[in-house]
Amino acid sequence: MSEFRWGILGTGSIAKAFANDLSFAEGHLVAAVGSRSIETAQRFSDQFGGIPFGSYQSLVEQDLDGVYVATPHPFHCTNTLLALENGKPVLCEKPFSVNSKESAAMIAKAKEKNLLLVEAMWSRFLPHYRLVRELIQQGALGEIKFLYADHGQYLPAERHPRLHLPELAGGALLDLGIYPISLSYLIFGKPTKTTARASFTELGVDESTSMIFEYDKNRQANLHTTLSIKTPCTATIIGTKATLEIHGSFYTPTSMSLKHANGEVINYPKEYLGHGLREQAVEFAKLVREGKKESELMTLSDSQSIMETMDEIRKQIGLAYPFEN
Ligand SMILES: NC(=O)c1ccc[n+]([C@@H]2O[C@H](COP(=O)([O-])OP(=O)(O)OC[C@H]3O[C@@H](n4cnc5c(N)ncnc54)[C@H](OP(=O)(O)O)[C@@H]3O)[C@@H](O)[C@H]2O)c1
Fold it and tell me: Ligand 1: does its nearest atom lie under 6 Å from the Cβ of 171?
């Protein structure tokens, strides 16, 4: 089988991590890289390969099997539309967009062009998330009543300006909170009611956000995110038969324990080697070759619904971005 030819759009930290992880996946090639400057594209190319291009437009015009969009959130929509318009399937970084209006436009364009579009919520493609799905489907936890999950990192403004700037859609919610939110969707689907409270940084983005998602049958998810301190980053899924603990950091390759009500414990050690970003690439290439237009592991309806829920949270906590006015 010929190599899957990736075009990398944007050359920041996650683009580098993705390209590096691709080098551990057989049959994947960084064929081209696009940056706003040719010098930056050249530096990326020197390290990871691929023909460098000094604009995103030139990148998407190349002969590629897929484009990976790795720019800050406010550009996900524009960059994804550009690649789709030029006939390229797209793997777009999380959060899928800044708001549900943008995500709807991205999905509509993918459907219009009949092209694959997937949110790069990489955790969904990891082996332990597949196991979480299997255990739930097998009924190993019984009826699931609660989820507790947090994602907190110490990301000071001096070292992580993107996370703090309103013009780059900064804040904990969109960057980090998306992980517990995406996990809650995997387990319970769309909440019937959402309640959120937040504290803000001086620059006006959410520093910490706490969320309660409610579902039918009195089920709940309690979720938390912050960019001011490292938190355990664990997830606990509590069912009537057993509790599944996903150890920190729950959204990366990690170990798990299934604790039965009768005291029996089954441990699932971490066996995965590497970062884990390549799993989404492997799945994406498979879907392109099969002619699929979306991934069952990260559906477009989940991506859209998650953006709608984040819109609602932002409304409740008063998190607005200047470019949305
Ligand atoms: N999956 C994960 O684990 C993970 C981890 C971190 C981030 N992310 C997501 O990936 C996206 C990028 O994050 P990152 O940490 O890689 O960001 P970053 O290091 O700041 O890089 C973003 C890149 O986007 C391009 N860009 C285009 N317009 C820009 C602008 N106005 N300002 C700054 N950069 C601009 C730049 O590439 P050029 O100069 O080459 O054009 C820049 O290098 C975010 O949406 C984030 O949520 C995902």
Answer: no
Q: Decide: 33 and 45 in contact? Cβ < 8 Å.
A: yes
Catalytic site residue 109? Answer: no
CA 91 to ligand 1 centroid distance, Å: 14
Contacts for 161-165: CB closer than 8 Å, 24+ residues apart: 162/72, 163/205, 163/227, 164/201, 164/203, 164/205, 164/227, 165/203, 165/205
CA of 150 to the centre of ligand 1 (A): 23
- In the chain, where are the structural domains located? 4-122+277-296, 127-274
Per-residue pLDDT tens over the stretch 146-194: 999 999 999 999 999 999 999 999 999 999 999 999 999 999 999 999 9
| Cβ neighbourhood burial of 13 (10 Å; 0-12, 13-18, 19+) | exposed
CATH topology of domain 127-274: Dihydrodipicolinate Reductase; domain 2 (3.30.360)
Q: How far apart are CA 23 and CA 28, in angstroms?
A: 7
Would you say 115 and 84 are in contact if contact means Cβ atoms under 8 Å apart?
A: yes
Distance CA 141, CA 131 (A): 12
Residue closest by Cα to atom 40 of ligand 1: 35
Three-state DSSP class for 2? coil
- Whether 127-274 and 4-122+277-296 are alike in CATH topology: the answer is no
Q: Which CATH architecture has domain 4-122+277-296?
A: 3-Layer(aba) Sandwich (3.40)
Q: How far apart are CA 58 and CA 5, in angstroms?
A: 15
Q: Copy the structure tokens of residue 153.
A: 């990192």
106-115 per-position pLDDT tens digit: 999 999 999 9
Per-residue pLDDT tens for 72-120?
Answer: 999 999 999 999 999 999 999 999 999 999 999 999 999 999 999 999 9
